[in-house]
Design a protein that fits this description.
Blueprint: H1 18-34, E1 37-40, H2 46-57, E2 62-65, E3 86-87, E4 92-93, H3 96-105, E5 112-115, H4 119-123, E6 130-135, H5 141-151, E7 155-163, H6 176-186, E8 190-196, E9 199-204
Parallel strand pairs: 1-2, 1-6, 2-5, 6-7
Antiparallel strand pairs: 3-4, 7-9, 8-9
The structure holds magnesium ion.
Length: 205
């Protein structure tokens, strides 16, 4: 591996495999020359580091969107709940503190613009064209559809749409990300580039 990251990426909590992170970085190097990039579902900042390191090299920016209250599977009692990220005083998941630690440890404050909001609120008045959109938010069909409909339309020509957790075989994982992948392909607006592990890449035609 030749990719040099500004911190030990294994120390960052998250669900992104190294080959997926490296692919995100590789596409963001080109995409961030077209326009700023945006990710949905930053969690503790693992994918953010891969994407923003590429954006930083081009003096572009990464909008990092997450309400930081955890997806369905992060809630107490659910499979991916992490007690370290639970704010017991308020009784909610809070991944924003950990996210900020990651960004500052990686010296990416000059590149990452956190947006702490839901996808629907953040997108309501959005007008900035985007070079890359990485969808890794909530995995309910409703959330995935909302993310796709809210953000894919802002991609510039040749921009990259990346979707995480694509499992064509339902026994391997939830189907919502795969559903929006198929929807994007069926729209005729995208061409398929490649899949790296469970991460799919499409290009806006
Ligand atoms: Mg994911």
């Amino acid at each position: 591996m030749s990719l040099n990251l500004p911190l030990d990426i294994e120390s960052v909590k998250g669900f992104l495999e190294p080959d997926e992170g490296e692919a995100l970085h590789r596409y963001a190097v080109k995409a961030s020359q077209l326009a700023p990039c945006l990710e949905i579902g930053s969690y503790c900042g693992k994918s953010t580091v891969y994407l923003a390191t590429a954006c930083q090299a081009n003096r572009s920016v990464l909008y990092a969107l997450d309400h930081h209250r955890g997806s369905e599977e992060h809630q107490p009692g659910e499979e991916y709940h992490d007690p370290d990220l639970y704010d017991a005083d308020v009784g909610v998941v809070d991944s924003f503190r950990e996210f900020r630690k990651t960004i500052s440890a990686a010296n990416l404050q000059d590149t990452v613009i956190p947006i702490v909001a839901t996808s629907s609120v953040a997108s309501r008045h959005w007008v900035t064209p985007l070079g890359m959109v990485f969808i890794d938010g909530g995995h309910s069909l409703e959330s995935a559809l909302e993310d796709y409909r809210s953000w894919a339309a802002h991609l510039v020509k040749n921009g990259i749409l990346a979707i995480h957790d694509i499992f064509p075989d339902p026994s391997q994982g939830g189907q919502a990300p795969y559903e929006i992948w198929k929807l994007a392909l069926a729209s005729g607006l995208f061409k398929e580039l490649e899949k790296v592990n469970t991460l799919g890449f499409l290009q806006r035609i």
